[in-house]
Fold:
Amino acid sequence: MKILGLFLAIILTFASAAFAQDLQVPQNAVAGEGASISTSGSGSATFYLTGPGTSLKRDFKRGETISLSADDLAYAGRYTAALDGGGAQSFFVTAAKPAKLNFMARPSRVPVAHPDVISGVVFVLDRNDNLITTPTTVNFQLGIAGSAPTTRPLQSKNGIAWIKAGSGNREGAAQFTASVGDISAKRVVQQVASDPCNLRMKAQADGKNIQLQTEPIKDCSGNAVPDGTIVTFSESAGGRGRSTVDARVKHGVARATLPSVPGATLTVASGVVLGNEIRWSGGQ
Structure:
């Protein structure tokens, strides 16, 4: 019985191989492009094709060439061709050339002059949205109109390329672009002024009060901080008390009124940034 079982297995193996020879599948099929499968033998048969997003059944005459359309092979992956009565062969369809970029950029708003605050991720796709897994050069470019952009080429891995980039020194709408050849995708990252830098104020007597006003407030890159930024003016008079006023920047400067107390110390700050200090004598 064992010998008989082995004999049958050998016969089935040779039979399967013989059926497989009835099909000559494509060796370099590309997604979204037609292909053909040649057959041998004689008589009627039924052809079957299964693969990603594909299930096909077709009657034909053995010895004919079976034509597969671009729609039949729209998606990359493994396909199996088979004939009724047994025999099947598998073949692979690869993605076509790059035609689309799925580009994501985060965040949409960043402070200037900060390292690694912008992230970009690109998925390289063909015209049928197949992920192109072969290494592809993706050029990332970030810049603002009027200044030279920074460009960095990176190789995709398994269809994905990603980057971390620092923001520039100028505020405004930065154009963040990813490109492969003549295909590109663009996103906008709004760069805004960073924390105030070199905060300074001046004081002037106004009857029984002190009028305080800052110089134009800018960040360390020279960008004007946005109106609405909170600036805190303080007056410390030792045992005679302390006064504090929170003022908003308007037209680039902040103003406040505090009582005139001779010998008081006046300070200004915005967030964690401290400005100059004035010792008030009570004069003009």
Notes: Confidence is low (pLDDT under 50) at residues 1-20. The chain has three domains: 2-94, 100-192, 196-279. Residues 2-20 form the longest helix (19 residues). Helices lie at 2-20.
